[in-house]
Design a protein that fits this description.
Two copies of one chain form a homodimer. The first copy, chain A, is mainly alpha-helical. Chain A has a single domain, classed as Farnesyl Diphosphate Synthase (Orthogonal Bundle). Chain A contains 15 helices and two strands. In chain A, strands 1-2 form a two-stranded antiparallel ribbon. The longest helix of chain A has 28 residues. The first copy, chain A, is globular. Chain A starts with a helix and ends with a helix. The model of chain A has no long low-confidence stretch (mean pLDDT 95). At the A-B interface, helix 2, helix 6, helix 7 and helix 8 of A face helix 2, helix 6, helix 7 and helix 8 of B.
Chain lengths: 288, 288
């Protein structure tokens, strides 16, 4: 099975799980439930959930145990996109090929939908009854993780003196922290040992950084149609990207090296890691 | 000890705990840590934390076990106030006698500070290692709890056809859900039995609703100086309040009845409930 085929299967599982878990569009207050479903089912590729499930399966874990956790991670990712797109943040009009949530439901509902998804995610991640999962997720999305990266990202806009360290800080926090946590949480649900968690975390940090670098590259080289969002918006907003600091070619080379390092890390594990390696390759080969 | 004296002691404990837990103003990114501390230490009375600790102590619980949970609840409350005050929500300039967060740090940092506090709260609530606490909190602040109430609140503005059911829905969800959860979580950390949790939850729903009704009343009868926020803003924004639907006198009578019912509920418990009853009385006697 190719990584893309594998991701499609996990995506279907996650979407079915979330469809059953989330309240319906007729449940009061209707607007928030419609808004949540609009964003959650707008066609994400569920890459983070896929990584989480793959990590669990690599360590012999049970799909029923990891599925709520993987689905919760996608709710966190969705909330972060909703708040990122707000007028006071990136002010984006298009996301996954559709108008952004605040464009359709208003800014207040967009703020509240993000807030609700943040909480709902923890309901799901609590399901296996292992509080380590809560701590890993909360740390990954707090000020020493995703939000820390978001803040640095917002503050770096229009800065002329950006260093390699600055953009590295932004990308490792904004993106790699949650990707690494997704893998670690999957491994935790499968009962992986502490030293195995260290390996999987490092693997995640490497492919997570590569993922964001490729995102930066695609924002320059892809099209609105393929990407489903406003291409060129990073440059338009003068955002801190790898291509801005390292140039396009060196950015691509760094992403490739990161994936190579990540794949190498897995050699120390005594488990089946073929699909993890495949997903690492997918990070640099993806076009959407 | 009077309830006010008791609350002062818990407030000091919670503030010390949070001061040690939260990152410093010099930690990167500095702006978000300064923003978080600005909001968290702006002088809240820590009523929800006080309820949580009192519930734990009533059931013979340990202060070290409940303190992180009580402190986490205050982070949730702080996040909800930050997002409530945003221009796209209530658009308030004053909170606890100081300019609201977005007025000082900008809207983007205010959104992100709220998001970060939401996650940090779960780190704290996970500390006792009991995932029931996560579920209770997440349910209380999701679309069937606090956020559901917020949405209904936002959508009720300027409506002329508000019913008693509408304002009851808003208040029980927006305010009573988290207050009830605070008490239940305290009781859970102390190992209370399921039937005891039902009692404490009902007690919490009653005093939580009374608390929001008194808030509505104070918005009419108090002053900016005493309350630390813009008095009269509910009426100015034509918000859904108990006085708007029931009138001022009947609202006060309902709040008194709710507290009386709440106190009566506690009689079925075989534990020391003196301070819980005192805090219930405080809800209707408070002036700030």
């Amino acid at each position: 099975m190719t990584p893309v085929e594998y991701l499609e299967i996990q995506k279907k599982r996650v979407n079915e799980y979330l469809d059953a878990f989330l309240l319906g569009e007729d449940d009061a207050p209707e607007s928030i439930h419609r808004a949540i479903r609009y964003s959650v089912f707008s066609g994400g590729k569920r890459f983070r959930a896929g990584l989480c499930i793959t990590a669990a399966e690599s360590f012999g874990g049970d799909i029923d145990r990891v599925l709520p956790v993987a689905s919760g991670i996608e709710l966190i990712h969705t909330y972060s996109l909703i708040h990122d797109d707000l007028p006071c943040m990136d002010d984006d009009d298009l996301r996954r090929g559709k108008p952004t949530l605040h464009k359709v439901f208003g800014e207040n509902i967009a703020v509240l939908a993000g807030d609700a998804l943040n909480a709902l995610a923890f309901t799901l991640v609590a399901k296996p009854g292992d509080c380590r999962l809560i701590r890993i997720l909360a740390d990954a999305i707090g000020t020493e993780g995703m939000i820390g990266g978001q803040v640095a990202d917002v503050e770096a806009v229009e800065r002329d003196d950006l260093t390699e360290d600055d953009v590295n800080f932004i990308h490792t926090h904004k993106t790699a922290a949650l990707i690494s946590a997704s893998l670690e949480m999957g491994a935790v649900t499968a009962g992986a040992e502490d030293e195995e968690l260290v390996v999987i975390r490092n693997f995640g940090k490497h492919i997570g950084l590569a993922f964001q670098i490729v995102d930066d590259v695609l924002d320059i080289e892809s099209t609105d149609e393929v990407l489903g969002k406003d291409v060129g918006s990073d440059m338009e907003q003068d955002k801190a990207t790898y291509p801005k600091v390292f140039g396009l070619d060196r950015s691509k080379a760094i992403a490739r090296d990161l994936v190579e390092d990540a794949v190498g890390e897995l050699d120390s594990l005594r488990h089946e890691t073929g699909m993890l390696k495949g997903l690492a390759q997918f990070v640099i080969s993806r076009v959407y």
